[in-house]
Amino acid sequence: MAKLTDKQELFAREYLKDLNGTQAAIRAGYSEKTANEQASRLLANVNVQKFVAELKSARVEQTGIDAAYVLRRLVEIDQMDVLDILLQNGELKPIKDWPKVWRTTLSGMDVVEMASADSAALLKKIKWPDKVKNLELLGKHVSVQAFKEQTSTEITGADGGPVRYADMSEELLEEKLKELGNGRRSNQLESKRSDL
């Protein structure tokens, strides 16, 4: 790899903080007026790209947190069962007896002492992690892609080649364009006709 300038190296390190190229360029000492252009140029630089990849790889190695780790944690949270922390009589188990996923993921816990003339009692409220948000994050994971549109339409010409509009009648062209755009605007249809 070719040697980076100090400024390029600093840009790469700053870029990893928030993945904002413009802000990274400013923090690395580039002018605010040209930071956007500098960031674009630097991010297109093969040597800067390689250095950013090396830094990312080192960070993953150091923390052990990568996409697989995040997915495993999301699955653990999704599979949390309240019965794991309850005794047979419905009271909460002592926290030391809770599974780790509960101890590390619980969003909150309130303990209120309630006393009456006869006895004292503790009211314990626990707050679960947001399961809906967790499922959304699971669904957006690269390998799950639950929310990605799964349908696609491809229209090809003869033998899978490109569609030749010049050989089509006006009616057939209009029909094909409507299929593609599910009711495209008339000005789009006109621009296609003028391209012929």
In short:
The protein has 196 residues and is mainly α. It has 9 helices and 2 strands, in the order ααααααββααα. Pfam families: Terminase_2.
Helices and strands in order:
Blueprint: H1 6-18, H2 21-27, H3 35-44, H4 46-63, H5 67-78, H6 100-105, E1 108-115, E2 120-127, H7 131-140, H8 170-181, H9 186-195
Antiparallel strand pairs: 1-2
Helix pairs in contact: 1-2, 1-4, 2-3, 5-7
Region (Disordered): 177-196
Pfam family, one: Terminase_2
Protein name: Terminase small subunit
Structure description:
The structure is a single chain. This protein is mainly alpha-helical. Helices cover 50% and strands 8% of the residues. The chain is built from nine helices and two strands. Strands 1-2 form a two-stranded antiparallel sheet. A hairpin with a 4-residue loop joins strand 1 (108-115) and strand 2. Helix 1 crosses helix 2, helix 1 (6-18) packs across helix 4 and helix 5 (67-78) runs antiparallel to helix 7. It starts with 5 loop residues before the first helix and ends with a helix. The relative contact order is 0.06. It comes from Salmonella enterica (Salmonella choleraesuis). Keywords: Viral genome packaging, Viral release from host cell. This is Terminase small subunit. Residues 177-196 are annotated as: Disordered.
Shape: flat
What's the N-to-C terminus distance? 48 Å
Order of helices and strands: HHHHHHEEHHH
Largest sheet, in brief, is: 2 strands, antiparallel
Low-confidence stretches: none
* Broad structural category: mainly alpha
**Main sheet: strand order:** 1-2
CATH level-3 fold name of the largest domain = Arc Repressor Mutant, subunit A
Looking at CATH, the homologous superfamily of the largest domain is Terminase, small subunit, N-terminal DNA-binding domain, HTH motif
Protein name: Terminase small subunit
Pfam families: Terminase_2
Keywords: Viral genome packaging, Viral release from host cell
